[in-house]
Specification:
The chain is an alpha+beta fold. The chain has one domain. The chain contains 2 helices and 3 strands. The protein is flat, with a radius of gyration of 14 Å. Bound molecules: zinc ion.
Length: 73
């Protein structure tokens, strides 16, 4: 896994948990049936996998971080 793909962006794909590319690294402790895969536009490989609950948490964390920064500016 390289970091190069991150800069070129991702596509997101919803798949069944059974289709996880790296089940041992899947970010989900709730046994969710569906997961989201982030696939690099460069390598076309799955770079990141997490469930919808964790995706929401992560998304909110990122947005909160951006909002906080914008307030400070
Ligand atoms: Zn989950």
């Amino acid at each position: 896994m390289t970091l190069g793909g991150f800069q070129e962006g991702f596509i997101a794909r919803n798949v069944a948990r059974e289709e996880a590319r790296f089940p041992q690294f899947l970010i989900c402790s709730h046994n969710c049936k569906e997961i989201i895969q982030l696939i690099s536009n460069v390598s076309c490989e799955v770079e990141f996998e997490l469930c919808e609950k964790e995706a929401r948490k992560l998304g909110e964390l990122l947005i909160a971080s951006v909002d906080k920064k914008e307030k400070e500016e």
